[in-house]
Write a structure and sequence with these properties.
- The complex is a heterodimer of chains A (about 350) and B (about 240).
- With about 350 residues, chain A is α/β, with parallel strands linked by helices.
- In chain A, about 40% of the residues lie in helices and about 10% in strands.
- In chain A, β8 and β9 form a beta hairpin.
- In chain A, α2 packs across α3.
- Chain B is elongated.
- With about 240 residues, chain B is mainly alpha-helical.
- Chain B has nine helices and two strands.
- In chain B, α2 packs antiparallel against α3 and α2 packs across α8.
- Chain B is about 65% helix and about 0% strand.
- Chain B has one domain: Transmembrane di-heme cytochromes, Chain C (Fumarate Reductase Cytochrome B subunit, Up-down Bundle), CATH 1.20.950.20.
- The two termini of chain B are about 25 Å apart.
- The chains are: A alpha/beta (about 350), B mainly alpha (about 240).
- At the A-B interface, α11, β8 and α14 of A face α3 and α8 of B.
C-alpha cells in the first residue's frame, strides 16, 4: 500500500517547523507523565511512523466534547492533533458535507482497513429502530457498527459514549446506549466527562498515535494517567476537608474563606478525573476553584444519582427517592420503637404470669 | 460449684433440682465478640460523622485535623474488624463445635425451621416459654448469620473498595475489593450502600442488646453472663 506519509511529512506540509514539532513532543511527554528520555522517542515516532487516521463520529450528543477538544489549552497540541495529524472525518469540523463527507469515510475505511482509530462522541439510541439519531439518512447505530468493524481501537469520548449521560438518564425514552454495549469486540478506551478536559482528549490521542498502543486503562476502561485518582485526592481545598472545615451554605463565611465543599454536595470524593490537576481553559480554573462543588460529570449515571447539592446518592430501589440516611434513620427509629413496645408487653406478660 | 454450701446443695436436692452448666463460648471467641462490638461502635460513630461531618472547625486548616483523625479511627477500627473476622473464621474451624454455628445454617433441616417458628411464636407472646439451647436458638442463629456473617462481609468488601480508592489501583485493597466499585455502579453508589450497611448494623445493635437482656430475664437460660464467662447455665431442669 502506498501509504508511506508520516506524521512529520503531513506537519511539514502544513507549515509546522521542526522546532515546533520538538516543542510539541516534549510538552506531550510531560503531559503524559513520561521522562525527558521519551521526547526523542516521540519525535522519532512522529518522523517515521505512517500516520494513523482518526475517524470521529457523532451520535446522540450535544457536541460539548468537540467544543472542549478544539479549546485544547495547549495550542501546539491542538494544531498538531486536530489540523495536521489525522482527523480525517468529523462531520462537525470538516469542510466538506453530504455525500462528499461520507465518501471520505468510505475511502479511509478501505485504505486504512484495520488501521484507523474510531473516536465516538455521543451514543446510539436503539429504540424506534435507532430513528432518534440519523446520520446521512441512516440510523447512527448502523454507521457506528460499520465503521467500528475495521477499526483498530475505539475511543469513547465523553460521558455519552462512555456511560450514556443525559440522554440515557431515567426514563431513557430512546434507549440511548453507551458504545461498549453495542460494540463488544474491539478495545474501547473510555474518556468520560461532560465534556472531558481538552488536554486529556489530546493526550489520549497523542499517546495512541505515538506509541501505537492503547494507554494503560483502569478497571472501567479509563486511561490511568488521567483517571486513576479522584478530584478529591488532588483538590487544593483538601486540607480544609482533613481539618474539618466546611462550607455549610453557599453564602456563608466558610464559602468566602474557600473551605471544603463536601457538605454542600461536592462529588469530588467520588469522581475520577483530572480537573484538580489539569484544570480547564488553559489551566485557569475548575468548578471547585470557582466555589461550586464538583457535579461528578465523569461518573456513571451522574444525572440519576440525586441532587448535586446533597452528599448522599439517591437509592432508587426503595421506590421513592431516598438516601441511605433517610432509609436507615427511619428503620432504626421503627425498630427502636418496636423494641420499646415489645419490652413493655414482655414486662406486662411477665407480671401477669407471676400473678397466676 | 464448690462455693455452694452443703446446706444449699441439700436444699436443691430436696427440690429435685440439679444445677447444670455448659462451657459454650471459649475465651478467643468471647474476646472476639467484645472487640468486634467495640469496633462496630467505633465504626458506626466515626462513619456517621464522615458522611455528615461535625460543624466547621475554627482557625487555620493547618491547626486542625478533625476529619483526618475521625477517618483514621474509622480505618483503624475497620482493619481490626477485618482481622477479627478472619480470626473468627479460623476459630470456627479449630474451636469447639459451637464456634462454627455462626457460619453454618442447618438450612435443609425441617426440624430447625420448625424451631425457628416456635421461637418467633415466643417473641409474639404466643408461646408460654421458649425451648432451651446450649448454643444459639434457631432464630438467633438465623439473625446472626444474616447480620453478622453476611452483613460483615458486605461491609468489609464495600469498605475495602472505598479504602482502595485512596490507595489507588494495584494496591492490596484494590486487588481484594476493587471489583466492587464498577459492580455496584461506581464510587458514589458504593458510598451510599456502605452507609446503608451502617444503619443495618445500628438496627442490629438495637435488636441484639434488647433481645440478649430480655432472654437473660425471661428465657430459661443465661445469655449476657454467658458471653462474659463462657458458661451457659439453665434455670430449670425440665426437658425441652
Amino acid at each position: 500500500m502506498a501509504m508511506t506519509e508520516t506524521f512529520y511529512d503531513v506537519m511539514r506540509r502544513q507549515g509546522i517547523t521542526r522546532r515546533s514539532l520538538l516543542k510539541f513532543c516534549s510538552l506531550t511527554a510531560t503531559a503524559l507523565g513520561l521522562g525527558p528520555s521519551y521526547v526523542p522517542q516521540i519525535a522519532h515516532a512522529m518522523e517515521t511512523k505512517p500516520r494513523t487516521p482518526v475517524l470521529w463520529l457523532h451520535g446522540l450528543e450535544c457536541t460539548c466534547c468537540s467544543e472542549s477538544f478544539i479549546r485544547s489549552a495547549h495550542p501546539l497540541a491542538k494544531d498538531v492533533v486536530l489540523s495536521m495529524i489525522s482527523l480525517d472525518y468529523d462531520d462537525t469540523l470538516m469542510a466538506s458535507a453530504g455525500h462528499q463527507a461520507e465518501a471520505i469515510l468510505d475511502e479511509v475505511m478501505t485504505k486504512y482497513k484495520g488501521n484507523y482509530i474510531l473516536a465516538v462522541e455521543g451514543n446510539p439510541p436503539l429504540n424506534q429502530d435507532g430513528m432518534s439519531c440519523i446520520i446521512g439518512g441512516k440510523p447512527f447505530v448502523d454507521q457506528l457498527r460499520k465503521v467500528a468493524k475495521d477499526a483498530k481501537a475505539i475511543i469513547s469520548w465523553g460521558s455519552c459514549a462512555s456511560f450514556g449521560c443525559v440522554q440515557a438518564a431515567r426514563p431513557n425514552p430512546t434507549r440511548a446506549t453507551p458504545v461498549h454495549e453495542v460494540i463488544t469486540d474491539k478495545p474501547i478506551i473510555r474518556v468520560p466527562g461532560c465534556p472531558p478536559i481538552a488536554e486529556v482528549m489530546t493526550g489520549v490521542i497523542t499517546y495512541m498515535l505515538t506509541f501505537d498502543r492503547i494507554p494503560p486503562l483502569d478497571r472501567m476502561g479509563r486511561p490511568l494517567m488521567f483517571y486513576s485518582q479522584r478530584i478529591h485526592d488532588k483538590c487544593y481545598r483538601r486540607p480544609h476537608f482533613d481539618a474539618g472545615q466546611f462550607v455549610e451554605a453557599f453564602d456563608d463565611e466558610s464559602a468566602r474563606k474557600g473551605y471544603c465543599l463536601y457538605k454542600v454536595g461536592c462529588k469530588g470524593p467520588t469522581t475520577y478525573n483530572a480537573c484538580s490537576t489539569v484544570r480547564w481553559n488553559e489551566g485557569t480554573s475548575f468548578p471547585i476553584q470557582s466555589g461550586h462543588g464538583c457535579i461528578g460529570c465523569s461518573e456513571e449515571g451522574f444525572w440519576d444519582k440525586g441532587s448535586w447539592y446533597a452528599r448522599l446518592t439517591d437509592i432508587h430501589q426503595f421506590g421513592i427517592e431516598a438516601n441511605a440516611d433517610k432509609i436507615g434513620g427511619v428503620a432504626a427509629a421503627a425498630v427502636g420503637g418496636a423494641v420499646a413496645v415489645h419490652a413493655a408487653v414482655s414486662a406486662l406478660k411477665r407480671a401477669q404470669q407471676k400473678g397466676e | 460449684m464448690t462455693s455452694i454450701s452443703e446446706e444449699e446443695l441439700a436444699e436443691l436436692r430436696e427440690r429435685g433440682k440439679r444445677l447444670s452448666a455448659v462451657y459454650v463460648y471459649e475465651a478467643p471467641l468471647r474476646a472476639w465478640h467484645w472487640l468486634n462490638a467495640l469496633a462496630i461502635v467505633c465504626l458506626c460513630l466515626t462513619g456517621y460523622f464522615i458522611g455528615q461531618p461535625l460543624p466547621t472547625m475554627p482557625g487555620e486548616a493547618s491547626a486542625n485535623f478533625l476529619m483526618g483523625y475521625i477517618r483514621f479511627v474509622h480505618f483503624t477500627a475497620a482493619l481490626l474488624f477485618v482481622v477479627g473476622f478472619i480470626g473468627r473464621m479460623y476459630w470456627a474451624l479449630v474451636g469447639n463445635h459451637h464456634a462454627s454455628q455462626l457460619f453454618i445454617l442447618p438450612f435443609w433441616k425441617g426440624v430447625w425451621w420448625v424451631e425457628v417458628w416456635e421461637e418467633i411464636r415466643w417473641y409474639l407472646f404466643l408461646k408460654r416459654e421458649p425451648r432451651k439451647y446450649v448454643g444459639h436458638n434457631p432464630l438467633a442463629q438465623l439473625a446472626m448469620f444474616f447480620f453478622i456473617v453476611l452483613g460483615s462481609l458486605f461491609m468489609i468488601f464495600t469498605g475495602l473498595a472505598l479504602y482502595s480508592e485512596g490507595l489507588m489501583q494495584g494496591s492490596w485493597a484494590d486487588k481484594i475489593a476493587g471489583w466492587v466499585l464498577p459492580m455496584l455502579g461506581g464510587s458514589a453508589d458504593v458510598h451510599a450502600y456502605h452507609r446503608l450497611g451502617m444503619w443495618i448494623f445500628v438496627v442490629f445493635i438495637i435488636i441484639h442488646v434488647y433481645v440478649a437482656i430480655r432472654e437473660d430475664i425471661m428465657s430459661r437460660q443465661s445469655i449476657v453472663s454467658t458471653m462474659i464467662s463462657g458458661v451457659r447455665t439453665f434455670k430449670d431442669d425440665r426437658a425441652e
